[in-house]
Amino acid sequence: MEAYRRRGATAIVVAVDGRPASVMAIADPLKATTARAIEDLRRRRMKVVMLTGDNATTARAIADELHIDQVVADVLPDQKHGHVHALQAQGHAVAMAGDGVNDAPALAAADVGVAMGTGTDVAIESADVTLLGGDLAALVKARDRSVDTMRNIRQNLVFAFVYNVVGIPLAAGALYPAFGWLLSPVIAAAAMALSSASVITNSLRLRRRR
Fold first, then answer.
1. Distance of alpha carbon 170 from alpha carbon 54, whole angstroms
2. What confidence score (pLDDT) does residue 27 get?
3. Does the reported pTM lie above 0.85?
4. For a surface tag, which of 52, 83, 141, 193 has the fewest beta carbons within 10 Å of its beta carbon?
């Protein structure tokens, strides 16, 4: 049984008439993209923790193959939930990825719950994000897209503030005492249209992200 576990499989003893007769090994093959996805997350300075209800030997074998340093094995659903809270108590923002019924409490507790599209309905209902196809490589893409989106929002806020900081004093007649100049309604309308166009154009740049 330990030999199977060291190879990343779950060992099951089969008994006949109450006597052990055989050992069966059950294993899910790792997706070809998983190791790369874990490495990509690590390069983005994200700490990867493996939480699993599997035997510690099996979990360690899989973690070694994926180069995951921190492994917590033999955990029950409520314990996964507790580990998420423990990481949050340490000041971490936690993204939890899972696909089973036993992952649902932890998915709901995480700052961002990520369910696999191939997982159970309760996991999908508990999560904030669902990755179609169940490929962890999509998690890296989702993370990068969210970072790009927040950066774009901040840029759009800067555009909006610049237009308003310049436009509102002019519309209020700030230059009238010195120059006798008031903001023309035509120019004001053009500035508002240009403000909206610049924000929309900047947002559309996200479509080019790969």
1. 67
2. 81
3. no
4. 193
Could you tell me the sign of the dihedral formed by the alpha carbons of 76, 78, 80, 83, in that order?
negative
Nearest-10 crossing angle of helices 185-204, 137-171: 170
Give the C-alpha separation, 126 to 133, whole Å. Answer: 17
Annotate 134-160 with b (16+ C-beta within 10 A) or e (fewer).
Answer: ebbbbbbebbeeeeeeeebeeebeebe
**What number of other Cβ atoms are within 10 A of residue 4's Cβ?**
20
**Rounded to an integer, what distance in angstroms lies between the CA atom of residue 161 and that of residue 167?**
10
Candidate ranges 7-16, 54-63, 87-96, 177-186; pick with highest mean pLDDT: 87-96
How is residue 113 written in tokens? 């719950």
Q: Is the Cβ–Cβ distance between 15 and 21 less than 8 Å?
A: yes
Which amino acid, 118?
T
Q: Distance between alpha carbon 108 and the CA centroid of its chain, in Å? A: 13
Asked if residue 43 lies in contact with residue 93, where contact means CB atoms within 8 angstroms, the answer is no
129 neighbors 115 (Cβ within 8 angstroms): yes
Return the higher-pLDDT residue of 37 and 28.
Answer: 37
Contact between residue 38 and residue 68 where contact means Cβ atoms under 8 Å apart = yes
